[in-house]
Amino acid sequence: AAAAISVALLYRPWMAGGIGGGDVKMAAAVAIWVGLDGMIRYALAVAAAGGIVALAMYFLSRKAIRQEVRTNLTLAALQQSLPSVEVRAGGRPSVPYGLAIAAGAAFALLT
User: Fold this and answer.
1) CB-count exposure of residue 103 (10 Å: 0-12, 13-18, 19+)
2) Separation between Cα atoms, residue 23 and residue 102, nearest integer Å
3) Phi and psi of 16, rounded to 5°?
4) Whole-structure pTM over 0.70, yes or no?
5) C-alpha count within 13 angstroms, C-beta hemisphere, residue 84
6) What is the Cα–Cα distance from 25 to 29, expressed in whole angstroms?
7) Each residue of 27-73: pLDDT tens digit?
8) CB-based contacts of 21, cutoff 8 Å, min separation 6
9) Is 30 within 8 Å of 59 (Cβ atoms)?
10) Cβ neighbours of residue 20 under 8 Å, at least 6 residues apart?
C-alpha cells in the first residue's frame, strides 16, 4: 500500500517531466521498506533533503541560470501561478532528486 501511495503522489510530477521514472521507482521501493507507519516521516525527510539538494544545485549553477531561477520565482509569487519555462537547446538545470530520496530513506529507516 505504501508503494501505491508513493506512485500515486508522484504520477503527475512524472507525467509533467518534473521527476524521472527512476526516482518514482526508487521512492516506491523505499516506501515498501518504510511502510505506512513511516510514510509521513519519510515524505518530510525527502522534502527537506530535496530542498537542501536544490539549494546546493542553485549555488553550483552558472550566474545566468541563477538569475533565471530568481526571475521565475518572482513571477510565480506575483502571478500566484507557475510560469512556463522554456527548455533551451543546452538543456535545463536539474536537481538530482535521487539524492534526496536516498537521504530521506536513510533518515526514515535509521530513526
Assistant:
1) middle
2) 10
3) -80, -5
4) yes
5) 1
6) 6
7) 999 999 999 999 999 999 999 999 999 899 888 888 888 888 888 88
8) 14
9) no
10) 14, 97, 98
